[in-house]
Amino acid sequence: MIKNYIRKELRDFKPYHADFIQQKIKLDANESPFTLSENVKKKLIEWIENEENINRYPDTDSTELRKTLASFWNVSIDNVICGVGSDQLIDCMMKVFIEPGDKVVMPTPSFSMYSSTVVLNHGVPIQVELNSDYSYPIENIIKSCKENNAKILILCTPNNPTGNVLFEEEIKKIAENVKCPILIDEAYGEFTSSTMIPFIKEYPNIVVFRTFSKAYGLAGLRVGYGVGNKEIIDAIYLTKPPYNLNTISQKIATWVLQDYKIYKDRISYLKKEREYLLEELKSLPNIKVFNSEANFILIETNKLNLVKKLEEKEIFVRSFPKNSKTILIRITVGTKEQNKILINAIKEILK
Length: 351
Ligand code: PMP
Known about the structure:
- With 351 residues, this protein is an alpha/beta fold.
- It is built from 11 helices and 13 strands.
- It is globular, with a radius of gyration of 21 Å.
- The structure holds 4'-deoxy-4'-aminopyridoxal-5'-phosphate (PMP).
- 4'-deoxy-4'-aminopyridoxal-5'-phosphate binds at residues 30, 85-87, 111, 156, 160, 185, 187, 211, 213, 219, 224.
């Protein structure tokens, strides 16, 4: 009976779901293998011992964290908004701009939450296929935005799950030709060198979303942020729920940025490990490896049972069916030890 009351377009809707896996070799969700740094842990313990405001609602504007982010990126606090993960900001952005039936252009394959969030907000996702090497078809994207009178364009760089980046010049070309708001998702931006944050003044229709869930290892605390021109940030504020980010998440994310040196070293470590994994994977038979600028690597293989065999060895990766003969597998870069175990396991399975 209740089903009859559910919005029609949601009756067959599959909500985003991620398995909660608590295994040691968990390389399926692009998380960091590292948790809080020692400095941050110390600050947290001291703060807990003296805390006297958990009975109060958190600062609804995440002021301290936004100030710290603003100085980190050399922008003004008015250029920054914080969310419960970048997921929440993606949702807020859809809520602000989409009227029922409006189109949102996005690449495919890319992060599956984009289309779910658009549908949940009464919009219509328009998916533009990436080229066969997964590079972005710039002209097609511009064309699709114009033809569909797009309300929002989403670009993900480095793209999840393919790992490739959109070059600065490509984004500028798109932003010069597409007038609607452009969401640039840099969730994996710390693992590459380019960012569009320095161009927010020049391109007032872009907003860059980043997260503490990946490079900074705070996935469990859910902290994301957006940086853009004041006008687009103010617009997203219209739909930001009050008190969205809890007090502890705000504190810890601020301390993480203040302990940036350690986190920078961790990022360098993971980038080195990514090169190790790329080299090893490329040397294996029956596996096509795509270059990556993120903390994960996409491979394509005709060994359809590879994921299951890895799971039998307690190694978890993420798979995406491609066709009846091949599958795509996304492997998160782990610690040196985890990566070695993974490579040895794949070698043994392929033997
Ligand atoms: N964007 C991309 C491309 C992602 O892969 C993810 C997480 N899987 C997110 C955004 C959301 O990140 P969070 O909500 O944890 O900040």
